[in-house]
Amino acid sequence: MSDQVKIAVMGASGRMGRMLVDVVTHSDRATLVGVSERPGHDWIGRDLGDCLGRPSMGVPVYDDPLDLIVKAQAVIDFTTPAATLSHAELTAQARTVHVIGTTGLTDEDIAKLDAAARHATIVRAGNMSLGVNLLTRLTQQVAAALDEDFDIEIVEAHHKHKVDAPSGTALMLGEAAAAGRNVALNDVSDRGRDGITGEREAGHIGFSAIRGGDIVGEHEVIFAGAGERIILRHVATDRAIFARGALKAALWGQGKGPGHYSMASVLGLA
Protein backbone atom coordinates (compact mmCIF):
# COMPACT_ATOMS: atom_id res chain seq x y z
CA MET A 1 0.00 0.00 0.00
CA SER A 2 1.28 3.45 -0.92
CA ASP A 3 0.56 4.89 2.53
CA GLN A 4 2.74 2.35 4.32
CA VAL A 5 5.97 3.69 5.77
CA LYS A 6 9.06 2.24 4.10
CA ILE A 7 11.34 0.74 6.75
CA ALA A 8 14.95 -0.43 6.58
CA VAL A 9 16.49 -2.63 9.27
CA MET A 10 20.22 -2.41 9.87
CA GLY A 11 22.01 -5.57 10.98
CA ALA A 12 19.25 -8.06 10.27
CA SER A 13 21.05 -11.32 11.08
CA GLY A 14 21.30 -10.72 14.83
CA ARG A 15 18.74 -11.66 17.45
CA MET A 16 17.23 -8.17 17.59
CA GLY A 17 17.44 -7.72 13.83
CA ARG A 18 15.38 -10.84 13.21
CA MET A 19 12.80 -9.70 15.72
CA LEU A 20 12.57 -6.31 13.98
CA VAL A 21 12.09 -8.05 10.63
CA ASP A 22 9.17 -10.04 12.04
CA VAL A 23 7.51 -7.04 13.65
CA VAL A 24 7.82 -4.83 10.55
CA THR A 25 6.67 -7.51 8.09
CA HIS A 26 3.57 -8.22 10.20
CA SER A 27 2.63 -4.54 10.49
CA ASP A 28 -0.22 -3.14 8.39
CA ARG A 29 1.33 0.34 8.63
CA ALA A 30 4.84 -0.41 7.38
CA THR A 31 6.67 -2.29 4.66
CA LEU A 32 10.21 -3.66 4.83
CA VAL A 33 12.17 -2.33 1.83
CA GLY A 34 15.50 -3.94 2.70
CA VAL A 35 17.99 -4.90 5.38
CA SER A 36 21.72 -4.45 5.75
CA GLU A 37 24.63 -6.56 6.89
CA ARG A 38 28.35 -5.90 7.21
CA PRO A 39 30.46 -6.30 4.07
CA GLY A 40 31.52 -9.90 3.54
CA HIS A 41 28.56 -11.39 5.35
CA ASP A 42 27.19 -14.46 3.56
CA TRP A 43 23.68 -12.93 3.41
CA ILE A 44 24.78 -10.09 1.10
CA GLY A 45 23.00 -10.03 -2.24
CA ARG A 46 20.49 -12.70 -1.29
CA ASP A 47 16.76 -12.52 -0.63
CA LEU A 48 16.06 -12.18 3.09
CA GLY A 49 13.56 -15.01 3.02
CA ASP A 50 16.22 -17.37 1.70
CA CYS A 51 18.63 -16.26 4.43
CA LEU A 52 16.03 -16.97 7.11
CA GLY A 53 15.00 -20.33 5.64
CA ARG A 54 11.63 -18.98 4.54
CA PRO A 55 9.88 -18.45 1.20
CA SER A 56 11.09 -15.52 -0.89
CA MET A 57 10.21 -12.18 0.73
CA GLY A 58 11.31 -9.85 -2.06
CA VAL A 59 13.55 -8.09 0.48
CA PRO A 60 17.22 -7.70 -0.55
CA VAL A 61 20.19 -7.75 1.84
CA TYR A 62 22.56 -4.83 1.27
CA ASP A 63 26.16 -4.28 2.28
CA ASP A 64 26.18 -0.59 1.32
CA PRO A 65 23.98 1.29 3.85
CA LEU A 66 23.54 4.25 1.51
CA ASP A 67 21.90 2.11 -1.18
CA LEU A 68 19.35 1.01 1.42
CA ILE A 69 18.82 4.28 3.30
CA VAL A 70 17.83 6.20 0.15
CA LYS A 71 14.96 3.73 -0.37
CA ALA A 72 13.58 4.12 3.17
CA GLN A 73 11.52 6.65 5.10
CA ALA A 74 12.82 5.28 8.39
CA VAL A 75 15.84 3.28 9.47
CA ILE A 76 15.79 1.08 12.58
CA ASP A 77 19.27 0.58 13.96
CA PHE A 78 20.27 -1.82 16.77
CA THR A 79 23.88 -2.35 15.68
CA THR A 80 27.19 -1.09 17.10
CA PRO A 81 28.25 2.43 18.05
CA ALA A 82 30.64 2.74 15.10
CA ALA A 83 28.05 1.50 12.62
CA THR A 84 25.31 3.69 14.09
CA LEU A 85 27.45 6.83 13.79
CA SER A 86 28.20 5.97 10.17
CA HIS A 87 24.50 5.41 9.50
CA ALA A 88 23.61 8.72 11.18
CA GLU A 89 25.77 10.66 8.73
CA LEU A 90 23.84 9.06 5.86
CA THR A 91 20.35 9.44 7.38
CA ALA A 92 21.13 13.12 8.04
CA GLN A 93 21.97 13.61 4.37
CA ALA A 94 18.89 11.68 3.23
CA ARG A 95 16.60 13.34 5.84
CA THR A 96 15.49 9.84 6.87
CA VAL A 97 14.04 9.10 10.32
CA HIS A 98 16.69 7.24 12.30
CA VAL A 99 15.53 5.08 15.22
CA ILE A 100 18.48 4.06 17.38
CA GLY A 101 18.43 1.29 19.95
CA THR A 102 22.21 0.79 19.89
CA THR A 103 23.81 0.72 23.32
CA GLY A 104 27.37 1.40 24.45
CA LEU A 105 27.42 4.93 23.00
CA THR A 106 29.88 7.34 24.63
CA ASP A 107 29.27 11.02 25.35
CA GLU A 108 31.36 11.81 22.28
CA ASP A 109 29.18 9.48 20.19
CA ILE A 110 26.03 11.16 21.45
CA ALA A 111 27.46 14.59 20.61
CA LYS A 112 27.93 13.38 17.02
CA LEU A 113 24.32 12.18 16.95
CA ASP A 114 23.24 15.61 18.22
CA ALA A 115 25.01 17.13 15.22
CA ALA A 116 23.24 14.73 12.83
CA ALA A 117 19.92 15.55 14.50
CA ARG A 118 20.20 19.13 13.29
CA HIS A 119 19.33 17.77 9.84
CA ALA A 120 17.17 14.69 10.49
CA THR A 121 14.80 13.14 12.98
CA ILE A 122 16.61 10.85 15.43
CA VAL A 123 14.76 8.84 18.06
CA ARG A 124 17.20 7.22 20.47
CA ALA A 125 16.61 5.20 23.62
CA GLY A 126 18.47 2.67 25.68
CA ASN A 127 15.18 0.80 25.82
CA MET A 128 12.14 1.10 23.56
CA SER A 129 9.51 -0.52 25.79
CA LEU A 130 6.56 1.35 27.30
CA GLY A 131 7.15 -0.18 30.72
CA VAL A 132 10.79 0.85 30.95
CA ASN A 133 10.02 4.40 29.88
CA LEU A 134 7.37 4.60 32.60
CA LEU A 135 9.95 3.22 35.03
CA THR A 136 12.36 5.94 33.92
CA ARG A 137 9.82 8.65 34.64
CA LEU A 138 9.02 7.15 38.05
CA THR A 139 12.71 6.90 38.89
CA GLN A 140 13.21 10.61 38.26
CA GLN A 141 10.18 11.52 40.35
CA VAL A 142 11.20 9.34 43.30
CA ALA A 143 14.80 10.57 43.16
CA ALA A 144 13.53 14.15 43.25
CA ALA A 145 11.32 13.41 46.25
CA LEU A 146 14.04 11.73 48.36
CA ASP A 147 17.27 13.24 49.63
CA GLU A 148 20.72 11.67 49.92
CA ASP A 149 19.66 9.73 53.02
CA PHE A 150 18.37 7.26 50.41
CA ASP A 151 21.13 5.52 48.47
CA ILE A 152 20.34 4.69 44.84
CA GLU A 153 21.45 1.38 43.34
CA ILE A 154 20.58 0.11 39.85
CA VAL A 155 20.74 -3.64 39.25
CA GLU A 156 20.35 -5.09 35.75
CA ALA A 157 20.37 -8.61 34.36
CA HIS A 158 20.74 -9.77 30.74
CA HIS A 159 21.59 -12.85 28.70
CA LYS A 160 25.14 -14.14 28.53
CA HIS A 161 25.72 -12.83 25.00
CA LYS A 162 25.33 -9.14 25.87
CA VAL A 163 28.66 -7.40 25.34
CA ASP A 164 28.25 -4.08 27.18
CA ALA A 165 27.69 -3.17 30.82
CA PRO A 166 25.96 -1.37 32.38
CA SER A 167 23.12 -1.83 29.94
CA GLY A 168 21.78 1.12 27.99
CA THR A 169 18.59 0.87 30.04
CA ALA A 170 20.50 0.93 33.33
CA LEU A 171 22.31 4.07 32.21
CA MET A 172 19.01 5.60 31.13
CA LEU A 173 17.64 4.93 34.61
CA GLY A 174 20.81 6.35 36.14
CA GLU A 175 20.43 9.52 34.08
CA ALA A 176 16.83 9.82 35.28
CA ALA A 177 17.85 9.42 38.93
CA ALA A 178 20.64 11.96 38.51
CA ALA A 179 18.26 14.41 36.84
CA GLY A 180 15.86 14.01 39.75
CA ARG A 181 18.67 15.09 42.07
CA ASN A 182 19.96 17.82 39.75
CA VAL A 183 23.40 16.26 39.37
CA ALA A 184 25.41 14.89 36.45
CA LEU A 185 25.52 11.09 36.33
CA ASN A 186 29.22 11.10 35.38
CA ASP A 187 29.98 12.89 38.65
CA VAL A 188 28.17 10.37 40.90
CA SER A 189 28.30 7.07 39.00
CA ASP A 190 29.81 4.07 40.79
CA ARG A 191 30.16 1.16 38.36
CA GLY A 192 32.48 -1.26 40.09
CA ARG A 193 33.18 -2.52 43.58
CA ASP A 194 35.82 -5.13 44.34
CA GLY A 195 37.99 -5.75 47.36
CA ILE A 196 38.26 -3.25 50.22
CA THR A 197 36.28 -0.36 48.76
CA GLY A 198 35.53 1.62 51.88
CA GLU A 199 32.10 2.91 52.77
CA ARG A 200 29.61 3.85 50.10
CA GLU A 201 29.90 7.53 49.23
CA ALA A 202 26.78 9.55 49.93
CA GLY A 203 24.93 10.68 46.83
CA HIS A 204 26.51 8.15 44.49
CA ILE A 205 24.42 6.06 42.11
CA GLY A 206 25.64 2.48 42.00
CA PHE A 207 25.38 -0.02 39.15
CA SER A 208 25.51 -3.82 39.22
CA ALA A 209 25.34 -6.07 36.14
CA ILE A 210 24.32 -9.73 35.97
CA ARG A 211 24.94 -11.81 32.84
CA GLY A 212 23.64 -15.32 32.30
CA GLY A 213 21.49 -17.72 30.32
CA ASP A 214 18.76 -16.23 28.16
CA ILE A 215 17.57 -13.41 30.42
CA VAL A 216 15.82 -10.89 28.17
CA GLY A 217 16.14 -7.93 30.52
CA GLU A 218 15.48 -7.15 34.17
CA HIS A 219 16.06 -3.80 35.87
CA GLU A 220 15.66 -2.67 39.46
CA VAL A 221 16.11 0.78 40.94
CA ILE A 222 16.62 0.53 44.68
CA PHE A 223 16.24 3.52 46.98
CA ALA A 224 17.72 2.28 50.26
CA GLY A 225 17.21 4.33 53.40
CA ALA A 226 17.54 3.64 57.10
CA GLY A 227 14.84 1.12 57.98
CA GLU A 228 13.13 1.06 54.57
CA ARG A 229 13.66 0.49 50.88
CA ILE A 230 11.71 1.51 47.79
CA ILE A 231 12.24 -0.81 44.83
CA LEU A 232 11.06 -0.05 41.29
CA ARG A 233 11.33 -3.04 38.95
CA HIS A 234 10.69 -3.97 35.33
CA VAL A 235 10.99 -7.46 33.86
CA ALA A 236 10.97 -8.11 30.11
CA THR A 237 10.08 -11.64 29.03
CA ASP A 238 9.88 -11.10 25.27
CA ARG A 239 12.26 -8.89 23.29
CA ALA A 240 9.46 -8.25 20.79
CA ILE A 241 8.45 -5.37 23.08
CA PHE A 242 11.63 -3.55 22.01
CA ALA A 243 10.96 -4.19 18.34
CA ARG A 244 7.36 -3.00 18.64
CA GLY A 245 8.54 0.14 20.39
CA ALA A 246 11.13 0.80 17.67
CA LEU A 247 8.50 0.46 14.96
CA LYS A 248 6.21 2.80 16.90
CA ALA A 249 9.06 5.34 16.99
CA ALA A 250 9.68 4.98 13.24
CA LEU A 251 6.02 5.66 12.50
CA TRP A 252 5.84 8.53 15.00
CA GLY A 253 8.86 10.21 13.43
CA GLN A 254 7.20 10.68 10.04
CA GLY A 255 6.64 14.38 9.45
CA LYS A 256 8.53 15.46 12.57
CA GLY A 257 11.17 18.13 12.26
CA PRO A 258 14.88 17.55 12.85
CA GLY A 259 15.76 16.78 16.44
CA HIS A 260 17.18 14.26 18.89
CA TYR A 261 14.09 12.72 20.48
CA SER A 262 13.58 10.05 23.14
CA MET A 263 10.93 7.37 23.56
CA ALA A 264 9.37 9.62 26.18
CA SER A 265 8.40 11.96 23.31
CA VAL A 266 7.04 9.06 21.25
CA LEU A 267 4.92 7.85 24.17
CA GLY A 268 3.74 11.32 25.18
CA LEU A 269 5.70 11.24 28.45
CA ALA A 270 8.14 14.05 27.72
Series of secondary-structure elements, N-terminal to C-terminal: EHEHEHEHEHEHEHHEEEEHEH
**CATH topology name of the largest domain:** Rossmann fold
Indicate the mean pLDDT: 94
Number of helical elements? 10
Shape: elongated
What's the gyration radius in Å? 20 Å
Percent of residues in β-strands? 15-25%
What is the CATH architecture assignment of the largest domain? 3-Layer(aba) Sandwich
Any idea what the CATH superfamily of the largest domain is called?
NAD(P)-binding Rossmann-like Domain
Oligomeric state, counting identical vs distinct chains: single chain
| Secondary structure: helix percent | 25-40%
Low-confidence stretches: none
Q: What composes the largest sheet? A: 7 strands, parallel
Count of DSSP strands: 12
Number of domains: 2
- Helix vs. strand class: alpha/beta
Strands side by side in the biggest sheet: 3-2-1-4-5-6-12
| First and last CA, distance | 32 Å
